[in-house]
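Zinc/manganese transport system substrate-binding protein
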Amino acid sequence: MKYAHRLVWTAAIAAATTAIAACGSETPEPGASSATSGPKLAVVATTPEVADFVRNVGGSDVVVTQIIKPNVDPHDYEPTPADLQAIATAKLVVKNGVGLEEWLDRTIESAGFTGTVVDSSQGVTLREGGHHEEEGEHAEEEAGEHAGEEEHDPHIWHDPRNAKIMVTNIQKGLAAADPAKADAFAKNLTAYTADLDKLDSDNAAAWAKIPKTDRKLVTNHDAFGYYIARYELEFVGSVIPSLDTSAELSAKQLTDLVATIKATGTKAIFAESSLPPKTAEAIAQQAGVKVVAGEDALFGDSLGAPDSPEGTYLGAERHNTQVIVDALAG
């Protein structure tokens, strides 16, 4: 996270903390948090994917407050007073983990949260680093800032097998927080795990129809590493050369990416729903390939609108597979 962004975050968290103190014991607005009413377990989930997992495993026995809304970039998220209030009154906070929510620990501390944090990534075999190596002064800056740290890819949910591990961790957390509902959570987990198995087999069947020589992928940023590994795709490059969306493409990287797209016979560049497609469109024009954007944009960091088919994890992943397979088959 850049220094300037840290200053913005500090200012935001200070304002949020002041707002919480001012609110005192006021009743939250409807829909903001249901932690103080009813017997249901109050859970805060950080990302759209994690929130969807909690809803499926928790069923009617949980009330979920989702922090990051659809098509909001999770990498540079800034907490709001409503976020702190929801966390302060929840019994459980569930996160993606793997460093995706850099803002969360400080937010939890500021909120005075005394419950349990469930890291849904526990037990997942992590992919190290990104496909790209950053260059020049920016790379040296980042290296100094993260000295001693080992970067891992946080986009673990794009492999349904990892999603199974995540929902199992969530089920354990829910059962520990509300033992009386443990049987219901276990039953929900079994049903949802079957859905994840079907998603995985459907994805594999779709990719079996595409020759391996045509399975070349260029995306907005390096968010699909686990998906690529699971279904044996070839990663050609990304418009943003990083796991994080804040990185910038240098002139040399842009030229190299265009050349690589041409040399490999890659058919398309896939934009993402939470990122602007402008640079992807410019690169596609230079490389002489199509850009897949708009309603067909991939869900890399987010899910679709709540009432849409892509508003669930299963729907978004099915969308991604169908869009990529259709484009590469054509």
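thats it. Residues 197 and 211 are 23 Å apart (CA to CA). Residues 1-38, 131-149 have pLDDT under 50 and may be disordered. bye
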